[in-house]
Amino acid sequence: MTEGPVKVSVVVPTYRPGKGLNRLVASLDAQTLPTSDWEVVFVDDGSPDDTYERLLAIQSARPNVRVERIENSGWPCRPRNIGTDLARGEYVAYMDHDDELYPDALRAAYEFAKANDSDVVNGKEARTHDSGWAIDQYRADSGQVIDRTDFHPLIPTNPHKLYRRALLQEHSIRFREGGRVLWEDIFFNVLVARHAKVISTMASTPYYHWFSTPGSGSSTFVRSSPEWWYWLDKVVEAVNTDLAGEELATQRRLLRVHQYRSRLLDSFNNLYAPRDAAERKMIFEKASALQAKHFPESDDDHLNRSLRMRAQLLRRGYRHLLERLTVDDPNIPGAARITDAQWDGAVLRLSTRADWEDSTGRRHRLVERDGRIVKDLPKAYHDALSPDLFDVTDDIHAATVEIGVRSEASRVTWMASSASELHTAVTDGAVRWHLTGTATVDPATDAMGRPLERGVWLINGRCTLAGTVQHRIIRSSHIPPAIRFDDDGVIAVFSRTDGAVALDFDQTESPLTRLVCPTGRVRRIGTVTSIEVSGLPVDGDRREFATTLDIDTESLARRARRVPRRVLGRLRRRDPGPRGWRTVPARIVVRDGVASIEVELQTKDAFLVRIGERVPGFQPVMQVSREHTLVRPYGGLARGVLS
Length: 643
Hints:
Blueprint: E1 6-14, H1 20-29, E2 38-44, H2 51-60, E3 65-69, H3 77-86, E4 89-94, E5 100-101, H4 105-116, E6 120-127, E7 162-164, H5 165-170, H6 184-195, E8 199-210, H7 226-242, H8 249-264, H9 277-294, H10 305-315, H11 319-328, E9 334-344, E10 347-356, E11 366-369, E12 372-375, H12 379-384, H13 393-397, E13 400-407, E14 413-415, E15 417-427, E16 430-441, E17 456-465, E18 468-473, E19 482-486, E20 489-495, E21 501-505, E22 517-525, E23 528-534, E24 543-552, H14 556-562, H15 564-573, E25 581-591, E26 594-600, E27 607-610, E28 621-624, E29 631-633
Parallel strand pairs: 1-2, 1-4, 2-3, 6-8
Antiparallel strand pairs: 4-7, 5-8, 6-7, 9-10, 10-16, 11-12, 13-14, 13-17, 15-16, 17-18, 17-21, 19-20, 20-21, 22-23, 23-26, 24-25, 24-27, 25-26, 27-28, 28-29
Helix pairs in contact: 6-7, 7-8, 7-9, 10-11
Keywords: Transferase
InterPro entries: Glyco_trans_2-like, Nucleotide-diphossugar_trans, TarS/TarP_linker
Protein name: Glycosyltransferase involved in cell wall biosynthesis
């Protein structure tokens, strides 16, 4: 390995990484930053398998890789610290052994850091199974976010960032060692926050993909364990101690309230009441002790009303009433759906609706009093809590629904331009409400000013109420397909069989034949059968696209004679069955205001085709008659009959 300074040192602790190591190395090999400008320092934590040998093989094929091996320490802290001591880079980037960097991550982050003289660059992250991961933190590029007052500039507080090595060296900033240390990254970032002068957010270039792996260390953090509460105590203690001083008061409050809200008070969520009695008692007592020790009443002012209710009951020792509140005032998620999708020139216009309703149909219990919307809770709560906590009028009027698009390939989410409108209805004093919205998806600019990569994107909805966010892939939206042509191919939006709404570039997921409907007109010219279809834009120049078509050319009458019992059984189910189906090349042709599917076949008999599987309410199996003059739905007694 060549010696001398480099721009970035990537430090990777390993311990039995399995196949995830291949993914990580492939992402490093794909970096756009020249290899001579960066290095990788692998530090294996005494893996008992062949990890070290795999690392040596990786090193032998790459001049910028260094490998160290240590006795097992039990946690990533010591390997990271050793890697930091060995690093030669101007900046250090920490990775977990089964994650990946996006291809332009190191180049873009380093240049962003140099342009802003950054001590830390917090680059845009994605998480495998969380389409809304840290979206609000990555709304825009910013060279300096250290004075933000809405959230701490190092959130999310994992170490998947770019750190100036000189900062770490000058202040001896290292990960806390000593075996298993829950939330070791928070301890590290608290020290960084104490000394950093410039913290930057890079949102426009995807930086890090955090793979959620079953059985990872963080998946073993459970509230039912006293260990969880021990380390939460230590985390908040570090926040209050290491960020002491008036100049750090805002950062200290932001990080402390974040722990208060997301860990301590969120323990009293919908899962609290179903726990066994001993667990509920332990959690209440641990939370009560930590609240009294670390969280002043002024922290309650930064909570929404539901959490402030929980905080007040916890402070006053009302354990049983707090348990009842998790049932009477549950967290009910907001869920968005698409009600319409239409292309307006080069942009996609989406109509949305969002309801706050759980899987059982339960909604928030709300009533109207003196023109205000208030929580409808039993008298016991009014006797125990401050009166202002029941009025949620302003919260509901500030609720929003937004739309984003998430790449199926990279898992990166970009947010679209969205607007919301509140609708309320009062019946016998009870209030019901929902939001409608509009969103504009512009494939040419929605990746923060750049085009969306061609491929498949899933539409997701972000519902926000009183600071509580539910961000999910939209399900159960059954909309007619909407298709447009662009200079590079075709873009379609449609509902998948699982209810998700897909934005599909160039038939990556679904051929156009599944998104269009036959008009009923068919013609045969030699061996080419042409089936006229609707659902495609037919204005402009002639266009032609390769596609595929599912057909069954086996004689229907012959099949009926050969397997009459099976046929009769399927007649009852109106199921044409799997026999004889195959996928063949076809093409979509648009000319003279008419769109057609053209397929070359040798048969002159009637045959079956699958067309329009993604069109809601449409019978996708069609029969093309022997005369090749019409196409009609197939099913019931039509089976086995040649026209």
